[in-house]
Design a protein that fits this description.
- By secondary structure, the chain is of the alpha/beta class.
- The protein is built from 6 helices and 10 strands.
- It binds guanosine-5',3'-tetraphosphate (G4P).
């Protein structure tokens, strides 16, 4: 998606440890025109899939999922990050490991919000090692819902998560895939 790539190049900054900061337009201050175009693009990619629910994870995924859902006219469900090991019986639970924060998290979705009749599209802002998506996929699988695929805004291709999921047969569409980046500001996209 050209508009996104241009914004990454002009307003993104590369930090140490392979972290791309995009706070000024994607996940702190939000450029609403960009979000609109992101939603439109996900609809172009997945609009024929009869999606019944968009599923994401708090916090940064929620805004993108909501604008995207307006094009699909379906509800958004977001997984909550649990901070304790006390988990109620009526939640589906996924386990994720954050490589960025180096900690484990349980994520929860109440069982009443996803079921075997759903056709689920996963949406998130970043795809790095893929742990967040894997946790969401576990929940979709446990709920016996149909996974249509995953749409992510920025994939860090050099961290391998997207390709691992694609090799596992999951349709993953990322609007910008970064294959290499350097603290001097050089960023190379896959296509
Ligand atoms: P993974 O899910 O793909 O394995 O990635 P990881 O655990 O490393 O991601 C942890 C968090 O960091 C996620 O947000 C993810 O969106 C974000 N993240 C990963 N790489 C980058 C990056 O290069 N730049 C930025 N800005 N964020 C990145 P989170 O901690 O769950 O926080 P949030 O969704 O509440 O913002």
């Amino acid at each position: 998606m050209e508009m996104l790539k241009q914004m990454i190049l002009s307003r993104g900054t590369v930090k140490s440890g392979g972290v791309l900061r995009v706070d000024s337009f994607l996940n702190h201050q939000i450029d609403i025109n960009l979000y609109q175009e992101i939603g439109k693009e996900f609809y172009r990619l997945f609009g024929s899939e009869n999606v019944t629910k968009i599923v994401t994870i708090e916090a940064s995924g929620i805004g993108i999922a909501c604008i995207t859902a307006q094009f699909f006219n379906v509800p958004v469900v977001f997984a909550k990050k649990s901070k304790t090991s006390n988990v109620a019986d009526d939640n589906y639970v996924g386990h994720i490991y954050s490589f960025t924060h180096q900690c484990n998290n349980d994520i929860l979705i109440h069982k009443s919000y996803i079921n075997e009749n759903d056709r689920v599209l996963l949406i998130d802002d970043f795809l790095a090692k893929g742990s967040a998506l894997e946790g969401l996929i576990d929940i979709v699988t446990t709920a016996k819902a149909h996974l249509v695929g995953a749409g992510t805004v920025i994939e860090k291709g050099f961290q391998g998560g997207g390709d691992k999921l694609r090799q596992a047969g999951i349709r993953v569409e990322s609007l910008a895939i970064i294959d290499a980046m350097d603290e001097d500001g050089t960023i190379s996209f896959r296509n």
